[in-house]
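Recall the central idea of this unit: under ordinary conditions, the amino acid sequence of a chain determines the structure it adopts. In this exercise we apply that idea directly, starting from the sequence alone.
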Amino acid sequence: MLSVSLTSDSVLQTLSEKVWTIVRDNFLMNALTDAEVSDTDYFDWLREEGYTNEDGDIDWDRAPPYIEYNDDWKTILDKAEEWIHLRPGEMRGVVKLLNTDYSEDAPTDGWDFLLNWDYVLDKWVNLESKYLSYNTFYYMRKWIRKHIIITDDGKKVSVEYYAG
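Accordingly, the structure predicted from this sequence is:
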C-alpha cells in the first residue's frame, strides 16, 4: 500500500490537485451558490450601490462577485484551499503531525497510507478549523469522506468523485 511519506512528489501533487478540484467544484461552489441566492441582504446591497440596469433589475455584468461582498465566504474559500490543496511537503507534514498527535484516531491502516487521504483531510481540517465558527468546514469534512474515492490498482493512484 502506498505511503504518503514515500510517494513521489508528482503523484502527491496530482492527488492534491484532483481532490481540491473535486471539493471546490462539487462542494464549495454549490455551498457558495446556495449562500448567495439566499442572501437577500446581498441583493439589497447591490440595489443600494446602483448595480442595476434601467429596468431596476440587478446588472450581473457590473455586480461584484458575492465573495467581495461577503468576507466570511472569502475566508471559507481561502482556508479551504489552504487546507485541502496542499503541496507534497505539506502533505507529508500533515501526516507526521497526525501520526504524532492523533494516532488513537487513525483509521485501521494508519494516517500515512495514501488511500486514507480522505480521513487525513477530515482530521486536518477539523484541527485547523476548530477555532473558526463556520459550519461549512464541518460539512466539508463529512462531504470529503463520503464523496472522494481514492484507489490504487497497482499501477496508478486514482481520485474520483462519488456522487452517491
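The beta strands are 148-152, 157-161.
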